[in-house]
Specification:
The protein is mostly helical. It contains ten helices and two strands, in the order H-H-H-E-E-H-H-H-H-H-H-H. The chain has a two-stranded antiparallel ribbon with strand order 1-2.
């Protein structure tokens, strides 16, 4: 019995050592993101986040008139433009263009996985909204018209699902490390500013956006792990191609 237990422990250690640092980091982010989302959801359902939400939403408006946001007029127009980047129309168009690009490059497996990942995340966002059923904030007037439920923020979660997933999967088609890092940095930047725009416009509680970020990033990390282990990568094929080219030159 003791020897069997030792073999199990030894096999578990061997599997952990075989995992790369990036995979371990992604697993940690998935665990942390899921825990943070569940904890935040529990706090929202118990009504313990109202004080935090009220302070931030009120701080973004003029004390004399809560219908007027802080900052210059052009900032409101800029935020309106930024928030549209997380809308269904823009995200669907972006996803469609990426799928066309992958199809042209004959990356059929990645194209299929992008479709499943993105639309799976959108369905998850819908189910989470219906499950929590939190109404929109009424602390300050909304600067744009909205109709659906509030938690988690659809713009924050769907932008995280779409941009982070697309960034992670598209980076696998790139050979250069700096290009892959830029793609991921751009995806993270877009996700953050889209979420913050929803708070500024008064259409979401800050905790709605935090919940959307946690759920969306967790889903994107999960998709990245699956893609890393089961999808081919152009980046990995690059050294082989280089070696073949060098060997041909040497022979000539």
């Amino acid at each position: 019995m003791l020897k069997r237990l030792q073999r199990v422990v030894a096999n578990a250690i061997a599997r952990m050592q075989a995992l790369e640092f990036e995979t371990l980091l992604a697993l940690a982010l998935i665990s942390g993101g899921a825990f943070a989302f569940l904890r935040l959801t529990d706090e929202v359902l118990e009504g313990e986040t109202h004080g935090f939400d009220d302070v931030i939403l009120s701080a973004l408006r003029q004390p004399a008139d809560l219908s007027i946001p802080i900052g210059p007029t052009w900032l409101t127009h800029a935020v309106n433009d930024i928030t549209s980047l997380g809308g269904i129309t823009v995200l669907a168009l972006m996803s469609a263009l990426v799928l066309i690009y992958l199809s042209i490059c004959r990356r059929w497996q990645i194209a299929a996985f992008v479709t499943i990942s993105v639309f799976g995340g959108w369905l998850l966002s819908t189910f989470l909204k219906l499950g929590v059923a939190r109404p929109r904030p009424d602390i300050v007037p909304h600067l744009i018209e909205v109709h659906d439920l509030s938690f988690p923020s659809g713009h924050a979660m769907l932008s995280a699902v779409t941009y982070l997933t697309l960034g992670a999967l598209l980076s696998r088609t790139q050979k250069d490390r700096s290009t892959r890092l830029f793609m991921m940095a751009a995806a993270i930047f877009l996700t953050l500013i889209i979420g913050m725009s929803r708070i500024y416009l008064g259409v979401h509680y800050p905790t709605d956006v935090l919940g959307g970020w946690c759920a969306g990033a967790t889903w994107a990390c999960l998709c990245w792990i699956v893609a890393r282990n089961y999808l081919p990568s152009t980046a990995k094929a690059a050294p082989v191609e280089a070696q073949v080219g060098n060997s041909v030159e040497d022979r000539s």
